[in-house]
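dude i think i finally got it to work??
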Amino acid sequence: MTTTMTTTAFNVVVTAEHWAPEAQALVLEAGGQIHFMAEPITAESLAERLAQTGAQALVLRGSKPVSAAVLRAAPALRIVAKNGAGVDSVDMEAARAQGVAVAVALAANAPAVAEHALALMLALVRQLPQLNQQVRAGGWAGSSWQGRDFRGSTVGIVGYGAIGRATAQLAAALGAKVLVLRPAGQADDFDCEPDLRQLLPRVDILSLHCPLTEQTRGLIGASELALLRPGSLLINTARGPVVDETALLAALESGHLGGAGLDTFDIEPLPQGHPLTRLPQVLLTPHVAGVTRQAALRVAMLTAANIVDHLAGRPLPAGHLL
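look at this
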């Protein structure tokens, strides 16, 4: 991470009303001026803000639409720096055609997302949401309640980047067997299965950590869910559209799936009254798996450094530039 000043002043648009003060200080020290945006942020409002400021850099917080039209409205733009890792809302082809770099804060929030994924697994395995609701309602099952152990479960990992690897390590540390969707011998010391349809019947918990691409959109549909063992759990801290939401609802309502822990959804925020909110075996969180104080600071500092270094003509760390 550098604090060396760039040679010319530059403008940075942030698609949020706040950003870590330490990251702001890094940009300001390098000669940058920061412009924040308030919600709701649309393609039109983003294009207008970029054109108005003549921004050279965009800090992308959340999945705001960086379309070809948005990029065309920002001829001075040189870098889109995701304050995180997922860039499925960026038109990558248009960015390349316009010569705009797209950078990510690689692995900065991986430990936080992995902890969240594991927390969802443990809460569902031990049926904590149902137990909490029962006690609050005056119930007390006591020793008549029969839970199950996490230890000894088989956890399937789909997407073995920094987050998938960290999740696998945590699950294994608590006694789970880990099976990774990956060619044999390419997942550290974990067992591998190269075929998704062969992996699914072998796991008790399926944990998704893959990026959203045209290849992974709808990756887990009705036929894939049917291959999971009865009573299996699904964890999604990746992107909502990786899972066919209609098929997921059907599998949960039929009882084939024992539960789901979801941090991402097709539509965010999740609409009020959505069918998922009515299912007690589903644990829902508002796309915050990677949001802890420590992770947020790491992500913001790497994002700021990516901007400053790129605009100064310095190479970014391996894997940061897409």
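The longest strand covers residues 257-262.
im so relieved honestly
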